[in-house]
Write a structure and sequence with these properties.
Number of helices: 5
Number of strands: 11
Largest sheet: 11 strands, antiparallel
Low-confidence stretches: none
Structural class: alpha+beta
Order of helices and strands: EHHEEEEEHEHHEEEE
Shape: globular
Radius of gyration: 18 Å
Helix content: 10-25%
Length: about 240
Amino acid sequence: MIYKEEFKIGLKDVGKENQVNNKAILEYLEDIAAYHSDSVGYGVNTSDTTHLTWLLLDWKVKVIKRPQYGQVLHIHTWSRNIIKCYAYRDFEIYDENNNLCVVASSRWLLINNKTKRIAKIEPEVANKYESEPEKFVFEEKEIEKIKLPKNYKNSIIYQTKRKDIDIIGHMHNLYYLDLAYEALPEEIYNQNIFDEIRIMYKKEIKLGDTVICKYSYEDDKHIVVIQNEEEKILHAIIELQ
């Protein structure tokens, strides 16, 4: 089942040359994934009765062409594969002229929000999504893990604020990208748009937590590792190209 929605690019969604920015792209993808789940009965508004919530584990995004402010985007998403408690979801973004602009893949974990434990994806849930296992946007069907860098060049410390927290009490997924951008050296941030994004979420960040964001450059990739202040807990790794 291919689920489709339209999104219009607003002022807050653009960066250089009035082109859509990466945070806005992630926001559109996150929203349409939620809308798809809403449509089959396992979304935000039904979580109090189903006791099920989807937790995002990975993003893999490639920007082919950047639409500009005011354009209407046609976004497609589908469940690609469901394995035990994990679900893979892919995306395509098209512009007004039907040009393919963005492809993305993601991995999600099903959680019982009453017990706070991982939930098995039962057939009655999986069947509602009508997965499309033969339709995928990347040749690699699995989302590869990001390795920790060996050396770091820069770091910042950040304490989470109210504005960072989402409806389940964790730092919202989009704000990990904000932290990564803050950790980049100034010249790297100013000179790059980054058309390829990988985010691997590991441990949630909560209100008042202090984290350290460490920057590295390896194998032509800009990598930001987010850990707790003591550097013992890994919260996320963001990879930009």
